[in-house]
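Extended Data, panel c. Modelled sequence:
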Amino acid sequence: MLGIGCKTVLEGTKIGDSIAVNGVCLTVTSMSDHGYTADVMAETLHRSSLGTLGKNSRVNLERAMAADGRFGGHIVAGHIDGTGTIQHIRKDDTAVWYQIAAEQHILRYIVEKGSVAVDGISLTVARVTDRDFSVSVIPHTQSETNLVDRRIGDVVNLECDVVGKYVEKLCCADRAADEGKIGCALSEQFLSEHGFL
């Protein structure tokens, strides 16, 4: 069980609602005037950085998005794709750059000028290599989130934009079924056969 001390995020929240903790969607199991608790499965601890949290660790909290208004950033489900490790932090004139190493199964969905959630914070990708990606964070975002506490070597939760994953799945579904397997590699031949080249 995870206990979170908070106030503002609880406004309008009830038991059974979802609140993302560092980008990980968790269900509220009990509430008080000063915080709430959530159960955390072993699988969640294994796939995220939540297991590294200690007493008084600062976390990012976000309620589920309401469907009746504007929202900033991209759609984040709170179902992370894995973790990454902060490799470098550099300040420039107006922002702070974070370089984050990640595995190939995550990097394949990260594109320059696309979106990624780092500990639940929707950010624009500035650079991508075959080993890592970089984001540039404005002072407001850094001061209002736990990024201000992050150091080189820290592990962060990553959630890629879901659109790329759906496109890949849909493009490959017919071919994979024909070959009697799940998944496939999107190739130049496949694109040509389907009128894209």
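Residues 138 and 178 are 48 Å apart (CA to CA). This feature is highlighted in the accompanying rendering.
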